[in-house]
Amino acid sequence: MTKTSGIWNPTWLPLFASRAGDFLVYDIKNGHIHELFTKESLEWEVAPNIQEFLQGIARKLRNGRILLNENGLFDVISTDVQTHEVREDKILDDLYLSANAEKYFNLEILVEEDNVAAPDLYFKCTKMPNVCQNIINAINSGKPRSLQRITDKNQIRKNRRLACGSVKCSGSKNSCDEYPFASTSQGGAGSTTMCVALSENNSQGGQLAVFYRKNKVGNYNWFYMKSP
Questions:
Q1: Is residue 119 reached through a cis peptide bond, with omega within 30 degrees of 0 on the bond before it?
Q2: Do 179 and 191 touch, CB atoms closer than 8 A?
Q3: Which residues are in the Deoxyribonuclease NucA/NucB domain (predicted)?
Q4: What digits encode the pLDDT tens for the residues 77-88?
Q5: Whose CA is closest to 20, among 122, 95, 75, 70?
Q6: Is the pLDDT of residue 57 over 60?
Q7: Higher pLDDT residue, 19 or 88?
Q8: Where are the domains of the chain?
């Protein structure tokens, strides 16, 4: 484990936090776990990163929001999709996760893979310029480069429907492209979309499938959208 300090890195995933403001973070770029010593001012900056992390890992928190309470600890308020009950669970406290948090996301996956670097995804944009432009537009609008693959076909179809269901593309040779990809936890409602040639979408699907297979990116494994 390394010790580090300084500006918050967007590739860090927060694992634990203490009342003193110390954080354990998992770096999805190089697979290292860092111990981060922060000041109170940085704790406030961490909140959006924790929100993205929790919502990316835990489907039940996709509509949730992260709040920093008066004690400097992070609470999550989420809405149960089935019962619409609003509940409050303390997620990060005293370098240990609460029992309620464990059922929301599988932290063990991150810990077990602390020596495995998340692979970089490069697309050959000459074959799909509009697909790549849609990715650029999405990232410029705030969509993440750090993505987590899912293999549940039903969830992938649901993500694609939520992203592209209302998009009408003219002509049979055009189709809806979305980013983040439907095959990731970050996909679904709110994705950036564009109508592109069906041949471009097929090219992207083929490149993505090869990337997953070649780099052994399995269910809930992270990767990084490096290019474009």
A1: no
A2: yes
A3: 137-224
A4: 333 333 223 233
A5: 95
A6: no
A7: 19
A8: 2-112, 120-227
